[in-house]
Q: What sequence folds into this?
C-alpha cells in the first residue's frame, strides 16, 4: 500500500538530510503510528506520502505505483486515494459543517444526488448529525477535527493520513478522535498517524515507526518508547 | 467537463462574487473606469474614421477628356474608370460625366454677373468634357490616376494632391494614436485586474490549499475563479455600455448644436449605430481582462 525504498530528502538550503535512507512498507488495512520529537522528520514523511514534497533519492510506491516520477497533472488522482487530516483542522470558516464535507465531494466531481446521500452518512459516523448546519467557529476543537475526519473519509479513500491530529486537543477529546480513527481502520482503511502523544501510542499498542533526526530507528508493534 | 462540475463552478463563482461584494465592486469599478476611457477613444476613433470617409468621398479628381475623342470611346470610359482595381479591390466610388455644355453652365453660374468676360467665346465652347471621379480609399489616389492615364482619350487629370496627402496623413496619425492608446490601456487594465483578483485569490488561498489536498485538479481549482472573472467582466461591460450611451448622447447633442459642425456638413454616428460595436468591444474586453487577470493571479497557487 505504502512503500518507501531508500528514500532520502534534502531541502535545498539545509546541510543535513531531513530524511535519511528511509525504507518501510505499510500493508493494506494497517494502523501505524509515526513517532518522534518535533523536527525529527515526521511531517516530511507525511508530505512525501502525499507528494507535497519529492524525495531527493529513492522510490515511494503508493498502491503499487511508483509516485517518484508522477506527472504534475496526475497528483490530484493520487491524493483522491488518501484522506488527509491536520493538526489545525483546516476547515473553511465561511461554510457550514455540511458544506465543508460536501466540498470534498464537489472537488472530485461527485453527482449531487450522491453527495446528498453520502454526507449525512459520514457526519453520523463521526457523531455530528446535529451540527450539520453550524459553522466551524461554533464548534469545539474536537468537533472541528471530527468534521475534518468526515471530510477526509467522505470519498472513501483507501488510506487515511493524519499529521498530529490530536496536537491541538485536550486529552479526553484526543481519545475521542483516536477512537474514530480506530473505527475507520476497523472498516478496512489503512491509517497512518504522525504524533507525539505518548500515552495514546502506548495504550493503543499498534505498529510504531520511530524516527529520530531523519533516520528510522525502530519499526515494531508496541509503545512509544520501545526502542531496541 | 461534466455538467455537474460546470454547474458547481457557476454556483461557486456567483456565490463568491456576492460574498466578496467589496472586492467584486472594486474590480467592477476599476473595469468600468478602464472601459470608459477605452470607450471614449473607441467611439472617437470610429467617428474620426466615419468623418474621414465622408471627407474622402467628397474629394475627387477631374479627368479631362480630349476634345477630338470619338463618341464610342467616351462612352466606354465611364465603366472602365468605374471598374479600376487596385490590389484586386475596386476603389472608385462615383464617376460623374460633365459635358462641355454643363461645364460652361457651371462656369457661368460661378461668374454670376461677370459673365461678360465670356462674350464672343460662346459660339465655340472651348471647355472640355470631363469625368468627376471620387474614391472610396483616398490613399490609392495616385495609383488610380496612373491607371486612368493609360486609357485612350484622356487629356489630363487635375486634382488637389496636396489636400489629399494632408488628409491621408491626418487619418493615419489619428488611427495610429488611437491604436497605441488602446494597447496601453488594455495592458494597464489587465495588470490592475490581475492584482485585484490576486487579492481575492489570496483571501481564498486556504480553500485552494484544501481543494488540492482532497484531490482537485488544477482546472477544477481554476474554474470558479475564471468564471468569477467572466461574471465581473460581463457586469462591467453592461454597466459601461449604459454609461457610455448617456455620455455619448449628451456630448453628441451639444456638438450637433454647435455652428462649426453644422457649417462643415459632416455627420456622426448615433449611439444606436455604435451600440453593437461598443457592446462587442466591451464584452470582449471585459471577458478577456477578467479571464486573463484571473489566470495570471492563479498561476502561483497552482504550481505546488
A:
Amino acid at each position: 500500500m505504502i512503500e518507501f525504498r531508500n528514500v532520502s530528502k534534502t531541502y535545498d538550503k539545509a546541510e543535513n538530510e531531513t530524511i535519511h535512507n528511509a525504507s518501510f512498507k505499510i500493508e493494506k488495512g494497517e494502523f501505524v503510528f509515526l513517532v518522534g520529537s518535533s523536527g525529527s522528520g515526521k511531517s516530511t514523511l507525511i508530505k512525501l506520502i502525499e507528494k507535497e514534497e519529492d524525495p531527493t533519492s529513492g522510490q515511494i510506491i503508493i498502491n503499487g505505483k511508483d509516485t517518484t516520477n508522477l506527472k504534475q497533472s496526475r497528483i490530484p488522482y493520487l491524493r483522491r486515494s488518501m484522506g488527509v487530516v491536520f493538526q489545525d483542522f483546516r476547515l473553511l470558516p465561511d461554510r457550514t459543517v455540511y458544506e465543508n464535507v460536501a466540498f470534498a465531494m464537489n472537488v472530485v466531481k461527485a453527482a449531487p444526488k450522491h453527495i446528498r446521500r453520502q454526507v449525512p452518512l459520514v457526519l453520523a459516523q463521526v457523531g455530528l448529525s446535529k451540527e450539520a448546519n453550524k459553522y466551524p467557529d461554533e464548534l469545539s476543537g474536537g468537533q472541528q477535527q471530527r468534521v475534518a475526519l468526515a471530510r477526509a473519509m467522505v470519498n472513501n479513500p483507501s488510506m487515511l493520513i493524519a499529521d498530529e491530529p490530536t496536537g491541538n486537543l485536550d486529552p479526553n477529546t484526543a481519545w475521542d478522535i483516536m477512537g474514530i480513527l480506530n473505527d475507520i481502520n476497523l472498516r478496512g482503511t489503512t491509517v497512518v498517524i504522525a504524533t507525539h502523544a505518548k500515552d495514546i501510542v502506548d495504550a493503543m499498542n499498534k505498529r510504531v515507526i520511530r524516527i529520530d533526526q531523519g533516520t528510522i530507528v525502530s519499526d515494531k508493534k508496541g509503545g512509544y518508547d520501545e526502542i531496541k | 467537463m461534466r455538467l455537474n462540475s460546470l454547474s458547481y463552478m457557476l454556483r461557486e463563482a456567483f456565490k463568491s462574487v456576492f460574498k466578496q461584494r467589496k472586492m467584486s465592486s472594486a474590480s467592477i469599478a476599476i473595469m468600468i473606469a478602464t472601459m470608459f476611457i477605452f470607450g471614449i477613444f473607441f467611439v472617437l476613433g470610429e467617428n474620426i474614421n466615419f468623418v474621414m470617409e465622408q471627407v474622402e468621398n467628397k474629394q475627387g479628381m477631374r479627368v479631362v477628356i480630349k476634345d477630338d475623342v470619338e463618341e464610342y470611346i467616351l462612352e466606354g470610359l465611364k465603366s472602365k474608370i468605374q471598374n479600376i482595381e487596385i490590389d484586386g479591390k475596386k476603389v472608385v466610388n462615383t464617376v460623374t460625366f460633365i459635358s462641355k455644355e454643363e461645364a460652361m453652365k457651371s462656369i457661368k453660374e460661378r461668374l454670376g454677373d461677370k459673365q461678360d468676360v465670356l462674350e464672343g467665346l460662346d459660339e465655340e465652347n472651348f471647355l472640355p468634357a470631363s469625368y468627376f471621379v471620387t474614391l472610396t480609399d483616398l490613399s490609392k489616389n495616385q495609383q488610380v490616376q496612373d491607371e486612368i492615364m493609360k486609357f485612350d482619350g484622356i487629356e489630363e487629370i487635375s486634382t488637389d494632391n496636396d489636400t489629399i496627402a494632408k488628409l491621408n496623413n491626418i487619418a493615419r496619425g489619428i488611427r495610429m494614436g488611437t491604436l497605441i492608446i488602446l494597447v496601453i490601456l488594455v495592458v494597464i487594465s489587465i495588470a490592475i485586474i490581475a492584482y485585484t483578483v490576486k487579492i481575492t485569490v489570496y483571501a481564498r488561498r486556504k480553500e485552494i490549499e484544501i481543494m488540492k489536498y482532497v484531490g482537485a485538479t488544477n482546472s477544477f481549482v481554476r474554474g470558479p475563479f475564471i468564471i468569477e472573472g467572466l461574471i465581473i467582466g460581463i457586469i462591467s461591460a453592461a454597466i459601461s455600455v449604459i454609461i457610455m450611451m448617456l455620455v455619448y448622447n449628451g456630448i453628441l447633442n451639444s456638438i450637433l448644436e454647435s455652428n462649426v459642425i453644422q457649417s462643415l456638413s459632416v455627420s456622426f454616428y448615433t449611439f444606436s449605430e455604435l451600440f453593437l460595436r461598443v457592446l462587442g468591444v466591451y464584452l470582449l474586453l471585459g471577458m478577456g481582462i477578467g479571464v486573463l487577470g484571473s489566470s495570471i493571479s492563479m498561476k502561483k497557487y497552482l504550481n505546488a
Notes: Chain B touches chain A through 20 residues (CB under 8 Å).
